[in-house]
Design brief:
single chain, about 400 residues, mainly beta, five-stranded mixed beta sheet, four-stranded antiparallel beta sheet, about 0% helix, about 40% strand, globular
């Protein structure tokens, strides 16, 4: 993997750390390509979201930032993009979910960066959360809605499950209902289903990552506080904290890969040596999902975190071990993971390499690949990196992360 550029958090307007976690300044990251082709990274930070351009040569330029909606900030800030709007959530009480028109960033000259006003520059603010906080935001690009998940408290009406956000009018986002019967959801991916289970073809299926299980919802009905139908669950071996995952193919929904955030930390099962593993699940029968195997996703101890897949290539942020890239096309034929191949990696936290790594919460939280192939990576401590696979699979970005399923 080649490194092209780096900007520290202070140079992106967000040098403040979390007083509770002094090493934490950065969190999630996503990306957007403007109508004129500018590649804009949205970098989550403790006190807001930074907008940074990635040039055609992979160089970073700071364009400005959107401050957080609350007065304190949070180490947990999640970002997605739908139809040129940034959807930004936070664990901070009173932050709610910001809806921001990215066209406001599209023509900024980096010589004159802009700090936007959180009160007057938003398109909309989704504030129908119990105390105004959510762990994560999810976008269903196929059906063009958003979801807040992990919205505390857990004993509220929606029990921290899937809280649907109708963005038909982005200036007035509303909640038609939620999926609550399996409790807290940490992350999810929702699509118009196109896979082997013919009972659900064309249905709006959400795969949720619910701490101790993969939970599968038919989310076609979103109206009411128990709107959606829970159709399947998987409690896989060694489940410790079911964190996040992604379909292995954009246009065929059969296998998902997922990360468990605490199995390495607690030395559980196949992760007992502290080296991160990625878990494979076969969802051919949505009502009866099956665990099929796992594969190691780094060569030393670390905590596995967010992963995304495009064109058969998985890009995973493994905290202190950095971003690792794997060819996962073989899973369709070898679902035990035995033929998965590592393609590249880049370590942003070399401090622990001499001791074989660690399971500390350090290094990289998330990454985003643009269609150009450039990968932007956000880190807790340092800032944002631009990387690219040096050659072969994964060098070109395909359609980039996110976006609609391409139906066969």
């Amino acid at each position: 993997m080649d490194a092209y550029d780096f900007l520290n958090h202070a140079d992106m307007g967000g040098g403040e750390n979390d007083p509770r976690y002094p090493n934490r300044r950065g969190s999630s990251i996503w990306g957007w390509v403007s109508p004129k082709g500018r590649q804009i990274a949205l970098v989550g930070q403790h006190t807001g979201t930074a907008f940074v351009e990635v040039s055609r040569k992979g160089k970073l330029s700071y364009l400005g930032r959107l401050p957080c909606q609350d007065p304190i900030g949070s180490s947990w800030r999640e970002i997605r993009v739908l139809n040129n709007y940034a959807i930004i959530g936070s664990e901070a009480v009173g932050h709610n979910v910001q809806i921001f028109d990215l066209n406001k960033v599209a023509d900024i000259d980096p010589r004159s960066p802009v700090t936007f006003n959180k009160d007057t520059d938003l398109t909309g603010l989704f504030d129908d959360l119990p105390i105004g906080r959510a762990h994560n935001v999810v976008v269903d690009w196929d059906n063009e809605y958003a979801i807040a998940v992990g919205a505390q408290p857990r004993n509220a009406t929606c029990q921290s499950g899937l809280e649907y956000i109708d963005l038909t009018d982005p200036s007035n986002p509303v909640k038609p209902g939620c999926a609550s019967s399996d409790g807290y959801t940490h992350d999810a991916q929702c699509v118009t289903y196109n896979g082997p289970d013919k009972r659900y073809l064309g249905r709006n299926i959400c795969v949720a990552y619910n701490e101790d299980s993969i939970t599968i919802w038919d989310s076609t009905n979103k109206t009411g506080n128990s709107a959606s139908e829970l159709i399947g669950k998987l409690n896989y071996p060694g489940a410790t904290y079911t964190h996040q995952g992604w379909w292995t193919e954009r246009n065929w929904h059969q296998f998902v890969l997922l990360n468990d955030e605490l199995d390495e930390v607690r030395a559980v099962g196949n992760a007992s040596d502290g080296v991160p593993i990625t878990i494979i699940a076969d969802l051919s029968d949505l009502q009866n999902p099956k665990y099929t195997g796992f594969f190691k996703t780094a060569d030393h101890k670390a905590v596995d975190h967010n992963l995304y897949i495009e064109n058969g290539v998985m890009f995973q942020s493994n905290y202190g071990a950095g971003v690792w890239v794997h060819d996962v096309r073989s899973i369709a034929k070898y679902p035990d993971g035995s033929r998965v191949k590592a393609l590249a990696f880049f370590d942003m936290h070399p401090e622990d390499d001499a001791t074989g790594g660690s399971t500390a919460f350090v290094g990289t939280w998330g990454n985003f690949q643009f269609p150009s192939g450039f990968i932007v990576v956000n880190t807790f401590e340092r800032g944002a990196y631009v990387l690219r696979v040096a050659s072969g699979r994964g060098r070109d970005g395909g359609l980039g992360f996110g976006g609609k399923s391409v139906q066969k």
